[in-house]
Specification:
Layout (H helix, E strand, L loop, with lengths): L47 H10 L5 H13 L3 H20 L5 H4 L6 H10 L3 H13 L7 H23 L3 E2 L3 H5 L4 H13 L3 E6 L2 E6 L33 H4 L5 E8 L7 E9 L5 E9 L6 H7 L10 E2 H12 L4 E3 L3 H13 L8 E3 H8 L11 H8 L8 H19 L3 H4 L25 E5 L6 H10 L3 E2 L9 E4 L14 H11 L5 E4 H7 L4
Parallel strand pairs: 4-8, 6-7, 8-9, 10-11, 10-12, 12-13
Antiparallel strand pairs: 1-3, 2-3, 4-5, 5-6
Helix pairs in contact: 2-3, 3-5, 3-6, 5-7, 6-7, 7-9, 14-16, 15-16
């Protein structure tokens, strides 16, 4: 329950950045500082170092060490250790909140990982720890909003046991029948608990139609591997490294990029049959990291597709399902702008999500075909703007129909288009009829120091709203396109008086001031204040 200040631990760091031959015209935008240098969630901007020092002084030891142990244990599926760390964190948290230096109103503790810490204790049967959490939320008025979560975790402990008993007594039970069998209304919550039991190795599930058949069994961890390649190197599908290597995806999930290009390959004519996902993550200086993930589509392969990309049943044997891959990638993808070359990749992700009965990505997609059309209009009717044509015209070096290589090519097309036009990719993707700066909604990084805040932008910023939203999300801020009672920060840029219909402030600005007068906690910042808040100098 205590993840707001932690930093990631974990496996070996990924190495081998792929360098783009063309630098982004926006290379002068400074990268975010490290988490240690970032401001903590509060308007007084207390430093992380100071908070950690205070943590060590608490009677029960280093609070932050326990937070890191909790997250590390969860990521490595050591759930008993994770539950122990969550339990041990309760006492120092109480001491912190009781100490004048740990006043909740000043530190703005938001405890965003309450769900995971409590879930770990519920999964391992730690009723004593869950009762302590409930008592903690009742002891401090500041934690009133977390009381329903504490009660829900106690309910989860009961449901975990009931699910175990149910699956044990009815081997092969379909997952979509579990809610009915348990007579529970919250099907999403039940499904989440089943997923945790699957991760812990207590329950196995096999695809059965549009759902899963469940049984008590021992299973292995998901098999996801990544290739971080040197410039110009290419690893074709049939020579990919041995599967079964678990990559610490936290290395990538904690990073913030300008945008992420994405490409997929499919096993057959069905969009849902994704068998490979390629990502190209573009840093602010134009460097590109690429990742290749093989996916078991749990569908048959057709000869046409196999001949196209070289991936077959043997290649994906032991690989993770799309549902598992999406679970790993969702935090990263939902807080970045996604670039695809044509609309196929978004359609495939949506189709595969529907196939597995999981929510679609809540992400903003940009089509690099549209960007290429603005940069190289002469190619219309002269080869077109597909990757094969652009490969020749722009002298790109990549292997077509490999998701990783195609994703990198799409990223390079965007960077080259920015160089040719002098415009930001978000502006190139904007419709010619669109008058205002592009606004996007993105989810905040749950491990960012400002997680829990919700921001909205208005007016003309020095950087594009897309980049501002991406940096904000990297720091943990969720970005919305409109002002509501959930918004805690409004960032105001220069106002174009011709668009304000006689007002001297935008409608968003006026709405934020109304909410302030009504007593809602919403802060109005200029762009400079905003950049200081998210630690960009």
């Amino acid at each position: 329950m205590f993840g707001i200040f932690k930093r990631f631990l974990g496996g070996p760091k990924a190495t081998g950045d792929v360098k783009s031959a063309t630098r982004s015209p926006h290379a002068n935008v400074k990268q975010l500082h490290s988490t240690e240098a970032a401001s903590v969630v509060d308007f007084e901007l207390d430093s992380r170092d100071r908070l950690e020092a205070m943590s060590v002084e608490m009677p029960d030891g280093d609070y932050f060490t326990l937070l890191e142990k909790l997250q590390s244990a969860i990521s490595e599926k050591r759930y008993v250790e994770a539950a122990e760390a969550a339990h041990l964190s309760i006492a120092p948290l109480r001491d912190w909140l009781s100490d004048p230096r740990g006043d909740g109103q000043r530190l703005q503790l938001r405890i965003p990982a309450l769900q995971q810490g409590g879930t770990m204790m519920a999964l391992t049967g730690d009723i004593e720890g869950l009762l302590k959490v409930r008592d903690l939320t009742e002891e401090f008025d500041y934690l009133e909003t977390y009381r329903p979560d504490a009660v829900k975790h106690l309910k989860s402990l009961e449901l975990f046991d009931r699910i175990r008993q149910l699956v044990s007594s009815k081997p092969g039970l379909l997952q979509n029948n579990v809610k009915v069998e348990l007579d529970e209304n919250d099907g999403r919550h039940v499904s989440n608990l089943v997923a945790w039991l699957v991760k812990s190795g207590e329950i196995s599930r096999i695809k059965s139609g549009e759902t899963y058949a469940l049984s008590i069994a021992e299973i292995s961890s998901p098999s996801i591997h990544a290739d971080l390649l040197d410039e110009g190197a290419f690893s074709p599908p049939h020579t990919l490294p041995e599967r079964g290597i678990i990559i610490d995806f936290q290395v990538f999930l904690e990073q913030t990029y300008r945008f992420v290009a994405l490409d997929v390959e499919t096993a057959n004519r069905q969009h849902s049959s994704i068998c490979q996902v390629g990502l190209a993550m573009v840093a602010t200086n134009g460097d590109i990291k690429t990742i290749s993930i093989l996916v078991d589509p749990e569908q048959g392969f057709e000869h046409f597709n196999v001949n196209l990309h070289g991936i077959d049943e043997t290649t994906v044997k032991g690989a993770s399902s799309f549902e598992e891959v999406l679970q790993f990638l969702r935090p990263l993808l939902e807080r970045h702008i996604l670039v695809q070359h044509s609309n196929f990749d978004k359609q495939a992700f949506n189709a595969a999500s529907k196939f597995y009965g999981v929510p679609e990505l809540r992400a903003t997609w940009v089509d690099s075909v549209q960007i290429a059309r603005k940069a190289w209009p002469e190619l219309k009717g002269n080869g077109g703007h597909g990757l094969a044509s652009l490969k020749t015209h722009l002298d790109l070096k990549f292997e077509h129909h490999n998701a990783e290589e195609d994703a990198r090519a799409a990223a390079e097309v965007v960077l080259l288009a920015e160089t040719v036009t002098g415009e930001d990719f978000s502006e190139l993707a904007r419709s010619r009829k669109q008058k205002y700066q592009t606004s996007v909604a993105v989810s905040g990084n749950q491990n960012g120091p400002l997680y829990g805040h919700v921001a909205c932008f208005t007016g003309q910023l020095a950087m594009s709203r897309v980049e501002a939203a991406t940096f904000a999300a990297g720091a943990g801020i969720t970005v919305k396109t409109g002002v509501s009672k959930k918004v805690t920060l409004l960032i105001v840029g220069d106002q174009d008086m011709s668009t304000l219909a006689g007002h001297n402030k935008s409608s968003k600005h006026r709405r934020a001031e109304e909410l302030q007068r009504d007593g809602h906690e919403i802060r109005i910042l200029g762009e400079t204040e905003f950049l200081k808040l998210i630690a960009i100098d």
